[in-house]
Amino acid sequence: MKTLTCIVIGAGYAGIHAMKEIRKSLKNGEGSQPVRFILIEKNTYHFRKVLLFKPAVTDEEVRIPLAQLFPEGVELLQATVTSIATIEKKLQMLDATGNEQTISYDILVVAAGSVVRRPEASSGGLPLATLDDAQKIREVWRANLQLAATEANSLERKRLMTIAVAGAGISGIETAAELAYYVREEARQLGLEPNAIDIRLYNAHDRLFINGPEKVSMKLEQFLTDSGVKVVNGSRVLQETDGCLRLPDGGELPVGLCVWTLGLMPNPILEQWGLPVTADGFVQIDTSYRVKGATGLYSIGDCAKVVDPRTGRSDGMTCKEAIPQASRLAKVITADLNGQPAPVHTGYMDTFSIGLGPEKGLTWVRKWGIDLMLTGKLGYRIKRFTWDLASTIK
């Protein structure tokens, strides 16, 4: 009996869940077709991207070795895919040593994920886009506080103790809240006045969290204000130059640090692979995650345009949506292999959990037209649970 080769590209949230669910669905056993499972990832670890703000404020580890997640039954290839030949069912890749390899597949899942948007190079400041970026942000604000502790000039001291977060999506909200807590704690230890720390969150929209109801926006803003974050709605940062923000109204603000949190975009490598993509860069798939014009090729997660056929609504780029997609994908692949009707995508219910600093959070759920909010420690516990579930941490 021929051994099937099942490859998953990407070890983000969608990729690791896809591999786990497909393995469950395609069990090797008596009477079943043997399957070779391969996970291709450029790193040796799963990167917990939703926790990227953590190394910007603490030394918390946000990487999990893939060998820990998949101790057996999965071949882990550290490599970068360079092209996919959908007709021949082959892909080319460069391994960790730079050598080119070609591998054939029967089932291929593209879960290449997303990348964090970066500002223009001339915009100044520091983007929160990679682990190195996060660690650099932490180094800068800590160094600024140490300078402030000995600075005699009150205006310069105020500048060093001012941080702007440009971009008020969930990442920006969580980053600002964490900074508000940890920067103040550091200031206290250095003998500085914690309340003199000035953290501002710039939001281009007229309210926070435009995906939810206004009462959730108001609650979020109140939480941030109580935590020491000044929310500036209806304004965005144009540029940071030499310690000074430029704002659309012509105003300027002296700052010690500007952090850009500009949201996500699908991985730009997708077009290089020759896959069909939408105008905004997402892989084009049908309602059962099959890539258009290819056999045995599927895509889920942040890199795919996943649309609920009943409502026409697209899934967001969040880890909570990757989990049910992966579970349904495993059923789709099993059905396709057996020549049976496959399930179609169903959108996830309206729910978001947002971290608001250590042991604080807000979870919003809409069900049957009713909005439910859970806040404080309970909201945080739910958020922490979703973070851990997304990375298959028990």
From TrEMBL:
Report if keyword Oxidoreductase is assigned. Answer: yes
EC number, UniProt record:
1.6.5.9
- Pfam families assigned to the protein according to its UniProt record, in alphabetical order: Pyr_redox_2
Superkingdom of source: Bacteria
Write out the catalysed reaction.
a quinone + NADH + H(+) = a quinol + NAD(+)
What InterPro entries is this protein classified in? FAD/NAD-bd_sf (IPR036188), FAD/NAD-binding_dom (IPR023753), NDH-2 (IPR045024)
Give yes or no: UniProt keyword Glycoprotein: no
**Which top-level enzyme class is recorded in the Swiss-Prot or TrEMBL entry?**
oxidoreductase
Query: What UniProt keywords are attached to this protein's entry?
Result: FAD, Flavoprotein, NAD, Oxidoreductase
Q: Which residues form the FAD/NAD(P)-binding domain?
A: 6-324
Q: Which chain positions lie within coiled-coil regions?
A: none
| PANTHER family found in the cross-reference section | EXTERNAL NADH-UBIQUINONE OXIDOREDUCTASE 1, MITOCHONDRIAL-RELATED, NADH DEHYDROGENASE
Query: Family assignment?
Result: Belongs to the NADH dehydrogenase family.
Report the protein name in the record: NADH:ubiquinone reductase (non-electrogenic)
Organism equals: Paenibacillus harenae
